[in-house]
Amino acid sequence: MEYRQASADFDRFILEARDLAALQTTNQAYTMVQAVLRTFRRRIEISDALLFANALPPVLRAIFIDEWDLEEPIVPFSGRVAMTREVQAFRGDHNVSPDTAIADVAAALRRNVDEAVLDRVLARLPQGAVDFWRA
């Protein structure tokens, strides 16, 4: 059933992310979501990333693992402003993510997953993961 509903669930999520971030299009929202997921992914080990991915709906799971460079070094969690600048730097001119991008994606995500499962997974991840996904 999870896969049968995947497209409809993703459509609902991306519209919420778009609206929360006050973006004009779902393409803009997609770039923001992709940037937020990659910014988070850069900060956790592969085993932790797989735990996190399992808490995501199918389409977000696919976006999270897409084009993963397994040789990329892990970077530490930093302040929200620095990580937001990283989000905004993704795809340069094609990215209009607002300063609230991480919180906006976190809020949309929390509305579209089992929050208890997400919170249990985040509690197992390195320090900084819980704060990253705070809406």
Return the CATH class: Mainly Alpha
As residue ranges, the low-confidence spans are none
- Helix content estimate: 55-70%
Average pLDDT figure: 95
- What is the CATH architecture descriptor? Orthogonal Bundle
Total E-strand runs: 0
**Integer-rounded radius of gyration:** 14 Å
Percent of sequence in beta strands:
under 5%
What is the assigned CATH homologous superfamily? Uncharacterized conserved protein DUF2267
Structural class label: mainly alpha
Summarize the main sheet: none
Key features?
135 residues, DUF2267 domain-containing protein, mainly alpha, 61% helix, globular, DUF2267, Globin-like, DUF2267_sf
How would you concisely characterize the structure shown here?
With 135 residues, the chain is mainly α. It has helices spanning 6-20, 26-41, 46-54, 58-65, 80-89, 101-111, 115-124, 129-132.
How would you describe this protein?
This protein has 135 residues and is mainly α. It has a single domain (6-132), classed as Orthogonal Bundle (Globin-like), CATH 1.10.490. The chain has eight helices and no strands. The longest helix is centred in the first third of the chain and has 16 residues, at 26-41. It is globular, with a radius of gyration of 14 Å. It comes from Sinorhizobium alkalisoli. This is DUF2267 domain-containing protein.
